[in-house]
Design goal:
Layout lengths: L8 H8 L7 E4 L2 E7 L7 E9 L2 E5 L6 H13 L7 E5 L5 H4 L2 H8 L2 E5 H7 L4 H17 L4 H4 L17 E3 L12 E5 L8 E5 L4 E5 L20 H12 L6 E4 L5 E2 L1 H25 L5 H7 L11 H13 L1
Parallel strand pairs: 4-5, 5-6, 6-7, 10-11
Antiparallel strand pairs: 1-2, 2-3, 3-4, 8-9, 9-10, 11-12
Helix pairs in contact: 8-9, 10-11
Bound molecules: zinc ion (2 copies).
């Protein structure tokens, strides 16, 4: 079991009560700021603010909505800073709940936006022609997986949000140290959830900013689709395995609540995927001609499949295919 003990109590209680947790000072000069995600069961993304001599740095930002922006601005104010103090924002991955506010932040503050080279490359492909080609490739792929029409046509919120011409200011690789004076934070490449997902380890303070790579309660979606990672589950399991070699420090995730037990949580997630592989292997054995969609309807999910909307069903069929 992961140990939550004395850490993340306010966040965990807020999660249980379906409330937004407070802005908290996790360590001197380091705060967690919940940024609401409208109409999403995850409810909020946790942005982390780090005090610098010359301002503030953020890790992950929130979705590009007015409500999210106001929450980020207000949260930063509660740390005793102003949003215009932000000099640097490290993005764990290119999903809209993490990157969405980056263009507005840069426009408002001039902050440098940093991300892994693979995410920076993906960001460079948001021209209208690239997006149209991508949508068509997904349509073909989902049809091949046997998905019904409403699932094939379900809108992808990850495509409609980024404007063409966006780019990263700082491109990171695993092992790079973030250019944040006063902090000793290293990027850890953790592909799986996305090709260029980064976690950040702070060895001085025994902290791991885990993004979506590792959350306390749910397992992140692992999808295989056109333009995504090849063998994403394999890559994710390797990333989890590598995570067990990190210091067993406090985890500051991008959703839910912080916790202790890096190694135990990594092992739990690996065991979860082992069980899923066994279940899906058995389903394939029972009917080897099945499409990925048919298998998706036959295996167990954390909620009834009839209760999932087409967008969730698309994630489910892609996760099945990844296994
Ligand atoms: Zn994500
Ligand atoms: Zn997320």
């Amino acid at each position: 079991m992961i140990v939550t003990e004395d850490v993340g109590v306010a966040q965990r209680e807020a999660w249980g009560a379906k409330l937004l947790p407070p802005v908290e000072e996790v360590r001197p000069g380091l705060w967690s700021i919940p940024v609401p995600m409208p109409h999403n069961p995850l409810r909020y993304v946790l942005s982390y603010a780090l005090a610098l001599d010359t301002g503030l740095a953020l890790i992950d930002l929130g979705m590009d909505t007015e409500e999210s922006w106001q929450a980020l601005v207000d949260g930063v104010a509660q740390t005793g800073h102003h949003i215009t103090d932000v000099r640097y924002a490290a993005i764990t991955h290119l999903h809209p709940d993490h990157f969405g506010l980056a263009p507005r932040l840069r426009e408002t503050t001039g902050a440098a936006i940093a991300m892994h080279t693979a995410e920076a490359t993906a960001l460079g492909h948001f021209t209208p022609a690239d997006v149209a080609a991508d949508i068509e490739a997904w349509r073909v792929d989902l049809t091949d997986l046997g998905a019904p029409d409403d699932v094939v046509e379900a809108p992808r919120f990850d495509l409609v949000r980024f404007k063409a011409g966006e780019s990263a200011d700082v491109v990171l690789s695993g092992g790079d140290r973030l250019d944040l004076p006063g902090w000793n934070i290293e990027a850890v490449w953790t592909p799986g959830h996305t090709p260029g997902h980064l976690a950040f380890v702070d060895r001085d303070n025994d902290l791991l900013f885990s993004g979506d790579h590792m959350l306390p309660r749910i397992s992140p979606n692992i999808s295989s689709g056109p333009g995504e990672l090849e063998s994403p589950l394999h890559r994710y399991l390797l990333s989890l395995h590598a995570t067990t070699a990190l210091p067993d420090c406090e985890v500051l995730p991008a959703h839910e609540y912080r916790f202790r037990g890096v190694t135990d949580r990594a092992r739990q997630l690996m065991a979860h995927h082992d069980e899923r592989l066994d279940e899906i292997r058995a389903a394939v054995g029972a009917d080897p001609e099945s499409t990925a969609w048919e298998l998706t309807t036959r295996i167990t999910w954390s909620r009834p499949i009839d209760a999932m909307n087409p967008r969730l069903l698309r994630l489910a069929v892609r996760e099945t295919q990844a296994h």
